[in-house]
Specification:
The chain is mainly α and 156 residues long. It is built from five helices and no strands. It has a domain of 99 residues.
Length: 156
């Protein structure tokens, strides 16, 4: 199972408009009509938390950070990342209801998907907070890339 940053309760605080009295709910299929699912449903919110957390881990790896971030070894970084991921998921809740920053005319006109906007935002967040992540004991490994190697060309 994927490491998950943030909780559905944190998302509910940021996107309470779309909950049922502060609670994300799935439709009860055993008793149709007994409840009304929230929009998005609990299942959708939990899936988004997993997906955005996985994307965040991959973005961390792209910046040479060891992931996942642990609440045991890096408590401040873990809290910051959990809040950040919860905020992104609340943005998706707004988008699902045709509002919020992912539903602006500029993004829609340019064909920028919410995930593309999230990935760009994520990379910017990691770059801006890299020193703080390292200071809170999030390990960063030395990156070996083709760009750093000296290349030789044989002529003749």
């Amino acid at each position: 199972m994927t490491n998950v940053y943030g909780t559905q309760l944190q998302v509910a605080v940021m996107a309470s408009t779309w909950t049922n009295d502060g609670i994300w709910e799935d439709l009860n299929i055993e008793y149709p009509g007994s409840n009304v699912a929230s929009n998005p449903s609990l299942s959708e919110v939990e899936a988004w938390l997993e997906e955005i957390s996985a994307q965040f881990d991959i973005a961390l790896g792209s910046h040479s950070f060891v992931f996942p971030i642990s609440s045991d070894t890096s408590p401040t970084a873990y809290k910051a990342v959990s809040k950040y991921v919860s905020d992104l998921v609340s943005d998706l809740c707004n988008w699902k209801n045709s509002s919020g920053r992912f539903f602006t005319e500029k993004l829609v006109e340019r064909g920028i998907t919410p995930m593309a906007a999230i990935l760009k935002d994520m990379n910017t967040w990691i770059e801006m907070n890299a020193d703080g992540l390292v200071a809170d004991h999030v390990q960063q490994i030395q990156k070996t890339s083709v760009e750093k190697k000296i290349q030789f060309r044989v002529i003749g």
